[in-house]
Structure prediction request, 124 residues.
Amino acid sequence: MLPIAAATITLAMVFYSIAVWWERAMGKLRGRHLLLFWLGLACDTTGTTLMGKMAGSAFELNFHGIAGLLAILLMLFHSAWATVVHASRAEEPKLRFHRLSVAVWAVWLVPYVSGMIYGMSRIR
Prediction:
């Protein structure tokens, strides 16, 4: 189960990173970015759930657990807000949305990196 969990979390990083930086490069939120945001969230949630099953608990009260929960909640908020902004007729929010995207992505990287460090520290 570990390879599948690690692969889905890595896919989350790939989807989310591509969406964030592609959106920023294009200068406007588009539907294809939404798809990648939601795929990233789905992969991260799946991978986190699998990791929790292997650990025997869905959540641990430590730095990685808190950062991970915050990251998933932020990704959910970000993806939902992106959907609302994209569905609106207002162009200005679509042009500024990348600011939120980059901030959420940066926060998301913290549990991604801490999870790798934590996982490698347990390998002996």
Notes: The chain has a mean pLDDT of 89. Residues 2-121 form one domain.
